[in-house]
Write the structure tokens for this entry.
Amino acid sequence: MLGAQHIFIGANAVDYSGYPDCRPEFLRAFQAMANLATKAALEGGGVEIRAPLVDLTKAQIVKLALELGVDPALTVTCYQPNADGRACGVCDACRIRKAGFEAAGVADSTRYR
């Protein structure tokens, strides 16, 4: 057992149309379920789901990553990357990500197939 009290997830509400698990409502419901269904929560520990990117635009996420020194090429948004971690480049998640780079005025460093 890790004893973790927080779970961080990179969910973003912009993606909710194709991925309903990215909605704040889902994240709140998941947290409530986790706090009903885990031994740690029953013993007073509980868990908090944190989604710091949930309300940001994709352009804001790209800019934040660069400000924090995160290389976006090392991240994957695609739900169907290949075995090498390369994104498909055509699914909704990839198209939205590409648009985020464009809106941020930053070259897309994503590793596509």
In short: The chain has a mean pLDDT of 92. Helices lie at 24-37, 39-42, 58-67, 92-104. Residues 24-37 form the longest helix (14 residues). The chain is about 35% helix and 5% strand.
